[in-house]
User: Fold this.
Amino acid sequence: MTDALGEPDLRRRRWALLAQNPPEPGETYTVTSKPKRKQRRDAATSESEVDMTPMIDVVFLLIVFFLCIDFKILESKLPAYLPKDTGSRGGGTMEPQEKLRIRIVLDRRGEKTLRPAAKNAYYWPGHKVHFSVGATRADSLDDLKRELEELHRDPRWSVPDPKRPGRMKPMSVVIEPDAGTVYGDVAACVDAVKFVGFDDIHFGGGGGR
Amino acid sequence: MANLDAVQEDAKLDMTPMIDCVFLLMIFFVLVIDLSQTDLEDLILPKAKYVQPDDQPPDVRPIANINQGGDVIYKGNTYYAAAQHGENYEGMKKLLVEWRNTLKLTYKPLKEGQAVSAKNPNIPDDPVLVRADKWTEWHYVGKFMTACSQPYAQFWKLELAMSEIDKEDKMLKAQKAK
Assistant:
């Protein structure tokens, strides 16, 4: 029993079955099943009810994870340069260049104390250094900044810019850390030098020994 | 009775999606953390204000981690252990030569007609990132810088790693608060 398209005609088949087994007199005939299309729609609606609990659990776990984890992301950097002629023993001669020299001198090493939540790392409370810019002594970073600002304004501390003929640029700065100074002291000094506007920073001295 | 059955049916949670998610997350974090942080040792960097943010690091970058003991570490391997090697800086040399030979560095362009020679050396133009602990004695960093400028390496550009927050200060404050 097929329809015009050759598909099985279910409605006609159902009526044919009813005709073969008619209901007894007095018996009522009720269709209990829903049409198939409606059944499928109902099933899809019930499946689309997503349980949000596991997702919320996972989101909370993620929040806890990101709060607890201590990412070792590098935040920032300061550029500096080494003398190019040190390594290349090619016989080329460098023109003498005037440079502003800043010495970092250790005043007090401080008391070696174990860093919180660390096994082999320490810090030195009471550690103190001072800075020497030429003959001028700066006891704090603020003093150093003030001194460098004065020098930055003074045209005698400027040199011709080889990249822009006819123009001047601030003199190169050489930082010379003394024995006992730590990376943090040098970083603070470099930061102050950058703050004032000296961009060409080099390192010299005896390597802190 | 029918009500009780309905309640029991409701109480059955499907754990599968959550377990799937957790496994995926575990795999993701294991891979990502391992890949991105092998170069960076756990050091407390000094605080600086007037710094360049390191938000777009280059693909190729030599990174030297120098801890408080003066050890030079790269990708988890200690190339120079100050307590063990003392004045023998062969490990540093090995690391710098390895960088020159294995990393795809860019070199300072030579002028027209110039060839690489002792007079015109092939100088790498890529900066070396120096990550040292805030309390690492400067002479350890100085020794590494001296090694960088030797004829076998000739690295002349440096970047000093800094932090915008003082992690140590935070740790000390947290300890005091306890």
Remarks:
- The beta strands of chain A are 76-81, 99-108, 113-114, 122-123, 128-133, 136-138, 158-160, 168-170, 172-177, 201-203.
- The helical segments of chain A are 10-20, 36-47, 53-68, 141-153, 183-196.
- Residues 53-68 of chain A form the longest helix (16 residues).
